[in-house]
Amino acid sequence: MRPVEKWLTIIFFLSVVVAALNVVVAIARNASLVASWRQAANSLQGNVITGGIWTPPTLHLVRRDTTVTVRLVRSLGILGTASTQVVIHEAPNPVYVCSPGIPIDGESRAVLSTTCEIVPAQFWSRVAYLFGTRKPLTETPQFDLNYEVITDDPRAARQLLTRYVQMQIDRLRYFQGGNDVQVRFRQGSLTITRRGVMRTDRVLRLWIEQSLELHELAVASFAPGIDFGEEVMQATVGAVCKVCGDSLEGGEVVYCRVCDTPHHRDCWRYFGGCSVYACGEHKYKWSPRLARPNV
Asked: Which of 144, 179, 242, 268 could form a disulfide with 136, with the two C-beta atoms 3.0–4.6 Å apart?
Protein backbone atom coordinates (compact mmCIF):
# COMPACT_ATOMS: atom_id res chain seq x y z
CA MET A 1 0.00 0.00 0.00
CA ARG A 2 1.38 3.34 -1.04
CA PRO A 3 1.82 6.06 1.65
CA VAL A 4 -1.00 8.21 0.19
CA GLU A 5 -3.44 5.31 0.26
CA LYS A 6 -2.37 4.47 3.79
CA TRP A 7 -3.06 7.99 5.03
CA LEU A 8 -6.40 8.13 3.22
CA THR A 9 -7.39 4.87 4.90
CA ILE A 10 -6.41 6.21 8.32
CA ILE A 11 -8.33 9.43 7.73
CA PHE A 12 -11.39 7.45 6.60
CA PHE A 13 -11.41 5.24 9.71
CA LEU A 14 -10.86 8.25 11.99
CA SER A 15 -13.82 9.98 10.34
CA VAL A 16 -15.98 6.92 10.95
CA VAL A 17 -14.93 6.80 14.61
CA VAL A 18 -15.66 10.52 15.10
CA ALA A 19 -19.05 10.18 13.40
CA ALA A 20 -19.91 7.17 15.57
CA LEU A 21 -18.91 9.05 18.73
CA ASN A 22 -21.09 12.00 17.68
CA VAL A 23 -24.04 9.66 17.21
CA VAL A 24 -23.51 8.09 20.63
CA VAL A 25 -23.23 11.51 22.30
CA ALA A 26 -26.37 12.78 20.51
CA ILE A 27 -28.35 9.71 21.58
CA ALA A 28 -27.14 10.06 25.18
CA ARG A 29 -27.98 13.78 25.29
CA ASN A 30 -31.45 13.17 23.90
CA ALA A 31 -32.04 10.34 26.39
CA SER A 32 -30.95 12.63 29.24
CA LEU A 33 -33.27 15.37 27.94
CA VAL A 34 -36.21 12.96 27.75
CA ALA A 35 -35.55 11.79 31.32
CA SER A 36 -35.45 15.37 32.64
CA TRP A 37 -38.61 16.38 30.79
CA ARG A 38 -40.37 13.25 32.04
CA GLN A 39 -39.50 14.19 35.63
CA ALA A 40 -40.87 17.68 35.07
CA ALA A 41 -44.03 16.23 33.50
CA ASN A 42 -44.56 13.86 36.43
CA SER A 43 -44.26 16.69 38.95
CA LEU A 44 -46.76 18.76 36.95
CA GLN A 45 -49.09 15.79 36.38
CA GLY A 46 -48.47 15.80 32.65
CA ASN A 47 -46.97 13.40 30.16
CA VAL A 48 -44.11 13.29 27.66
CA ILE A 49 -44.34 12.00 24.09
CA THR A 50 -41.20 10.74 22.39
CA GLY A 51 -40.73 9.63 18.80
CA GLY A 52 -37.54 7.64 19.11
CA ILE A 53 -33.90 8.04 20.06
CA TRP A 54 -33.44 10.98 17.69
CA THR A 55 -36.68 12.88 18.28
CA PRO A 56 -36.78 15.57 20.99
CA PRO A 57 -39.53 15.10 23.60
CA THR A 58 -42.84 16.96 23.70
CA LEU A 59 -44.49 17.67 27.06
CA HIS A 60 -48.27 17.96 27.50
CA LEU A 61 -50.29 18.93 30.57
CA VAL A 62 -53.68 20.34 31.49
CA ARG A 63 -54.28 23.11 34.03
CA ARG A 64 -57.95 23.79 34.72
CA ASP A 65 -59.31 24.97 31.37
CA THR A 66 -55.93 25.38 29.67
CA THR A 67 -53.74 22.95 27.79
CA VAL A 68 -49.96 23.37 27.77
CA THR A 69 -47.55 22.00 25.18
CA VAL A 70 -43.77 22.33 25.50
CA ARG A 71 -41.50 21.47 22.57
CA LEU A 72 -38.21 22.30 20.88
CA VAL A 73 -38.24 24.39 17.70
CA ARG A 74 -35.76 26.06 15.36
CA SER A 75 -36.62 29.71 15.58
CA LEU A 76 -35.73 33.30 16.42
CA GLY A 77 -33.94 33.70 13.11
CA ILE A 78 -30.79 31.77 14.11
CA LEU A 79 -30.14 28.85 11.76
CA GLY A 80 -29.45 25.67 13.68
CA THR A 81 -30.29 27.19 17.09
CA ALA A 82 -32.83 25.24 19.15
CA SER A 83 -35.41 27.11 21.21
CA THR A 84 -37.82 25.98 23.91
CA GLN A 85 -41.42 26.84 23.11
CA VAL A 86 -44.46 26.82 25.40
CA VAL A 87 -47.93 26.95 23.84
CA ILE A 88 -50.84 27.64 26.21
CA HIS A 89 -54.30 27.31 24.75
CA GLU A 90 -57.48 28.20 26.58
CA ALA A 91 -60.52 26.35 25.30
CA PRO A 92 -63.22 26.65 24.30
CA ASN A 93 -63.49 30.43 24.73
CA PRO A 94 -60.27 32.49 24.80
CA VAL A 95 -60.52 35.60 26.94
CA TYR A 96 -57.35 37.56 26.15
CA VAL A 97 -56.72 39.25 22.87
CA CYS A 98 -55.31 42.01 20.76
CA SER A 99 -58.70 43.03 19.39
CA PRO A 100 -61.68 44.87 20.91
CA GLY A 101 -64.10 42.93 23.09
CA ILE A 102 -67.43 42.08 21.49
CA PRO A 103 -70.71 41.83 23.41
CA ILE A 104 -71.73 38.27 24.29
CA ASP A 105 -74.78 37.60 26.48
CA GLY A 106 -74.86 41.25 27.52
CA GLU A 107 -71.21 41.29 28.65
CA SER A 108 -68.07 42.48 26.90
CA ARG A 109 -65.73 39.55 26.36
CA ALA A 110 -62.40 39.76 24.54
CA VAL A 111 -62.00 37.41 21.59
CA LEU A 112 -58.73 37.00 19.73
CA SER A 113 -59.10 37.99 16.09
CA THR A 114 -55.63 39.21 15.23
CA THR A 115 -52.01 38.62 16.15
CA CYS A 116 -50.10 40.48 18.84
CA GLU A 117 -46.39 39.71 18.98
CA ILE A 118 -43.89 41.10 21.51
CA VAL A 119 -40.18 40.78 20.77
CA PRO A 120 -37.07 42.47 22.18
CA ALA A 121 -36.29 45.64 20.25
CA GLN A 122 -33.16 45.45 18.14
CA PHE A 123 -30.57 48.24 18.00
CA TRP A 124 -32.12 50.26 15.16
CA SER A 125 -35.61 49.83 16.59
CA ARG A 126 -34.38 51.31 19.87
CA VAL A 127 -32.75 54.18 17.97
CA ALA A 128 -36.02 54.79 16.12
CA TYR A 129 -37.88 54.97 19.43
CA LEU A 130 -35.37 57.40 20.93
CA PHE A 131 -35.66 59.68 17.88
CA GLY A 132 -39.46 59.50 17.83
CA THR A 133 -39.93 57.61 14.57
CA ARG A 134 -41.28 54.55 16.44
CA LYS A 135 -44.26 55.65 18.50
CA PRO A 136 -44.78 54.46 22.09
CA LEU A 137 -47.59 52.01 22.71
CA THR A 138 -47.87 51.73 26.49
CA GLU A 139 -47.51 54.20 29.35
CA THR A 140 -44.16 52.64 30.32
CA PRO A 141 -41.30 54.27 28.36
CA GLN A 142 -38.77 51.62 29.38
CA PHE A 143 -40.97 48.81 28.08
CA ASP A 144 -41.59 50.66 24.79
CA LEU A 145 -37.85 51.16 24.41
CA ASN A 146 -36.93 47.54 25.15
CA TYR A 147 -39.69 45.80 23.20
CA GLU A 148 -41.33 46.04 19.83
CA VAL A 149 -45.03 45.18 19.71
CA ILE A 150 -46.37 44.04 16.35
CA THR A 151 -50.15 44.36 16.16
CA ASP A 152 -52.83 45.91 13.97
CA ASP A 153 -54.92 46.93 17.00
CA PRO A 154 -52.82 49.18 19.26
CA ARG A 155 -55.74 49.99 21.55
CA ALA A 156 -56.40 46.37 22.45
CA ALA A 157 -52.67 45.65 22.75
CA ARG A 158 -52.40 48.55 25.19
CA GLN A 159 -55.17 47.02 27.31
CA LEU A 160 -53.44 43.65 27.24
CA LEU A 161 -50.02 44.99 28.23
CA THR A 162 -50.74 46.01 31.80
CA ARG A 163 -47.82 46.87 34.05
CA TYR A 164 -47.88 43.38 35.53
CA VAL A 165 -47.96 41.71 32.11
CA GLN A 166 -44.94 43.83 31.17
CA MET A 167 -43.09 42.77 34.32
CA GLN A 168 -43.81 39.11 33.64
CA ILE A 169 -42.53 39.40 30.06
CA ASP A 170 -39.34 40.89 31.50
CA ARG A 171 -39.01 37.95 33.88
CA LEU A 172 -39.39 35.48 31.02
CA ARG A 173 -36.88 37.36 28.89
CA TYR A 174 -34.15 37.33 31.54
CA PHE A 175 -35.04 33.90 32.95
CA GLN A 176 -31.89 31.96 33.90
CA GLY A 177 -29.66 34.68 32.46
CA GLY A 178 -31.30 34.72 29.02
CA ASN A 179 -31.90 37.75 26.87
CA ASP A 180 -34.16 36.62 24.03
CA VAL A 181 -37.86 35.79 24.10
CA GLN A 182 -40.77 35.99 21.69
CA VAL A 183 -44.33 36.29 23.03
CA ARG A 184 -47.28 35.84 20.70
CA PHE A 185 -51.03 36.00 21.34
CA ARG A 186 -53.05 34.48 18.51
CA GLN A 187 -56.45 32.77 18.14
CA GLY A 188 -56.89 31.96 21.80
CA SER A 189 -53.35 30.75 22.37
CA LEU A 190 -50.26 32.18 24.03
CA THR A 191 -46.93 31.09 22.55
CA ILE A 192 -43.65 31.85 24.33
CA THR A 193 -40.39 30.98 22.59
CA ARG A 194 -36.99 31.32 24.24
CA ARG A 195 -33.64 30.52 22.70
CA GLY A 196 -31.88 27.53 24.23
CA VAL A 197 -32.75 24.04 25.46
CA MET A 198 -33.88 23.56 29.06
CA ARG A 199 -32.16 20.34 30.07
CA THR A 200 -33.06 20.05 33.77
CA ASP A 201 -36.48 19.29 35.20
CA ARG A 202 -36.23 22.13 37.75
CA VAL A 203 -35.51 24.81 35.14
CA LEU A 204 -38.23 23.48 32.85
CA ARG A 205 -40.80 23.46 35.67
CA LEU A 206 -39.96 27.04 36.61
CA TRP A 207 -40.23 28.11 32.97
CA ILE A 208 -43.67 26.51 32.60
CA GLU A 209 -44.88 28.09 35.85
CA GLN A 210 -43.68 31.53 34.74
CA SER A 211 -45.40 31.06 31.38
CA LEU A 212 -48.66 30.11 33.09
CA GLU A 213 -48.31 33.20 35.29
CA LEU A 214 -48.13 35.38 32.17
CA HIS A 215 -51.22 33.64 30.81
CA GLU A 216 -53.17 34.33 34.01
CA LEU A 217 -52.12 37.99 34.01
CA ALA A 218 -53.16 38.33 30.36
CA VAL A 219 -56.54 36.76 31.11
CA ALA A 220 -57.02 39.11 34.07
CA SER A 221 -56.32 42.18 31.91
CA PHE A 222 -59.46 41.40 29.86
CA ALA A 223 -61.66 39.94 32.59
CA PRO A 224 -65.14 41.54 32.29
CA GLY A 225 -66.07 43.84 35.13
CA ILE A 226 -62.51 43.96 36.50
CA ASP A 227 -60.19 46.91 36.16
CA PHE A 228 -56.95 44.99 36.61
CA GLY A 229 -54.79 48.03 37.29
CA GLU A 230 -57.11 49.48 39.91
CA GLU A 231 -57.61 46.11 41.60
CA VAL A 232 -53.89 45.58 42.00
CA MET A 233 -53.28 49.13 43.19
CA GLN A 234 -56.07 48.88 45.78
CA ALA A 235 -54.34 45.84 47.24
CA THR A 236 -51.37 47.98 48.30
CA VAL A 237 -52.97 51.35 49.06
CA GLY A 238 -52.42 52.03 52.76
CA ALA A 239 -50.91 48.57 53.26
CA VAL A 240 -47.56 47.90 54.91
CA CYS A 241 -45.10 45.06 54.49
CA LYS A 242 -45.36 42.60 57.37
CA VAL A 243 -41.60 42.01 57.29
CA CYS A 244 -40.16 45.54 57.37
CA GLY A 245 -43.26 47.54 58.37
CA ASP A 246 -42.82 50.09 55.56
CA SER A 247 -45.50 51.16 53.09
CA LEU A 248 -46.03 48.97 50.02
CA GLU A 249 -47.02 51.86 47.77
CA GLY A 250 -44.59 52.58 44.97
CA GLY A 251 -42.34 49.57 45.63
CA GLU A 252 -41.88 46.24 43.87
CA VAL A 253 -44.61 44.13 45.45
CA VAL A 254 -45.25 40.38 45.30
CA TYR A 255 -48.15 38.37 46.69
CA CYS A 256 -48.33 35.04 48.48
CA ARG A 257 -49.72 32.35 46.19
CA VAL A 258 -51.83 30.93 49.03
CA CYS A 259 -53.16 33.84 51.10
CA ASP A 260 -52.50 36.81 48.74
CA THR A 261 -50.65 38.77 51.46
CA PRO A 262 -48.50 41.48 49.81
CA HIS A 263 -44.78 41.84 50.60
CA HIS A 264 -41.87 43.80 49.25
CA ARG A 265 -40.07 41.46 46.89
CA ASP A 266 -36.75 41.98 48.71
CA CYS A 267 -38.44 41.33 52.07
CA TRP A 268 -39.99 38.12 50.74
CA ARG A 269 -36.56 36.91 49.70
CA TYR A 270 -35.02 37.95 53.03
CA PHE A 271 -37.75 36.23 55.06
CA GLY A 272 -37.75 33.17 52.80
CA GLY A 273 -41.49 33.10 52.15
CA CYS A 274 -44.83 34.38 53.41
CA SER A 275 -44.66 36.16 56.77
CA VAL A 276 -48.21 35.21 57.80
CA TYR A 277 -48.19 32.85 60.78
CA ALA A 278 -49.12 29.25 59.85
CA CYS A 279 -49.09 30.01 56.10
CA GLY A 280 -45.49 29.07 55.30
CA GLU A 281 -45.82 29.41 51.51
CA HIS A 282 -42.49 29.81 49.70
CA LYS A 283 -43.74 30.82 46.24
CA TYR A 284 -45.04 34.25 45.29
CA LYS A 285 -46.88 35.76 42.36
CA TRP A 286 -46.97 39.23 40.85
CA SER A 287 -50.67 39.99 41.24
CA PRO A 288 -53.35 39.25 43.83
CA ARG A 289 -55.98 36.63 43.10
CA LEU A 290 -58.54 37.87 40.59
CA ALA A 291 -61.79 36.13 39.79
CA ARG A 292 -61.66 34.38 36.42
CA PRO A 293 -64.42 35.42 34.01
CA ASN A 294 -67.40 33.12 33.76
CA VAL A 295 -67.60 32.45 30.01
From this structure: 144
